[in-house]
Design goal:
The chain is mainly α and about 180 residues long. It contains ten helices and four strands, in the order E-H-E-H-H-H-E-H-E-H-H-H-H-H. It has helices spanning about 5-20, 30-40, 45-50, 55-65, 85-100, 110-115, 120-130, 135-145, 160, 165-175; strands at about 5, 25-30, 80-85, 105. The strands form two sheets. It has a two-stranded parallel sheet. Helix 2 (about 30-40) crosses helix 5 (about 85-100) and helix 5 crosses helix 6. The chain is globular, with a radius of gyration of 16 Å. The termini are far apart. The model is unreliable at about 150-155 and about 180-184 (pLDDT under 50).
Length: about 180
């Protein structure tokens, strides 16, 4: 089974690199991915956040305040920008959400769900402070029909669905909660 990123998510990941450079970081972390999502704006995750009363500009400002270094990364150094473990964990969580729903494409909605479970991000901290944890966000997203199935069906276990790949994703997601950001 092949799983891929949606076009919107690919765009967001390109923006995440730009956001890391703008904020002066050689490592793209989970918050840079969220900044990329906010920069894109035309996606289900941003629409969901707005529907929940979260102002995208205020969220961006809070993340910027947390991340911002005095000097941006020079454009010639763009090839040195790399994802951190926290970004990999966030994307692994998004893949897990997509696969759990039997989908072959990771959407921005899956990214938002993964963010709601993420522990090492200013954006996730802000979501939790607004009571937008996973258990509250998932039903809201289904109600608004943001690229998620309406109800749970008897889903196979991840390990049964994908064999070794499912084992690896499950392990990666669990281990990411225990490890620190390698660039911070």
């Amino acid at each position: 089974m092949e799983i891929k990123f949606s076009t919107d998510l690919q765009t967001i990941l390109c923006y995440a690199r730009d956001e890391a450079m703008r904020t002066g970081s050689y490592g793209i972390n989970a918050d840079h991915v969220v900044l990329g999502m906010l920069r894109h704006r035309d996606n289900d995750a941003c629409r969901m956040l707005a529907a929940c009363g979260i102002d995208p500009d205020a969220l961006k400002a809070a993340i910027d305040e947390h991340l911002f270094n005095e000097e941006a990364i020079p454009w010639p150094d763009q090839d040195r920008i790399r994802p951190t473990r926290t970004a990999a964990a966030l994307l692994g969580g998004a893949a897990y959400e997509a696969l759990k729903q039997g989908l072959h494409e990771i959407s921005v909605s899956h990214l938002l769900l993964a963010l709601s479970r993420h522990e090492k991000s200013k954006a996730a901290e802000i979501l939790r402070s607004r009571q937008l944890d996973y258990d509250h966000l998932l039903p809201l997203m289904r109600e608004k029909r943001y690229a998620l199935p309406e109800q749970d069906t008897a889903l196979p276990r991840m390990e049964d669905l994908l064999g070794p790949l499912g084992d690896q994703l499950t392990r990666l997601y669990a281990e990411s909660k225990e490890k620190t950001n390698i660039y911070s």
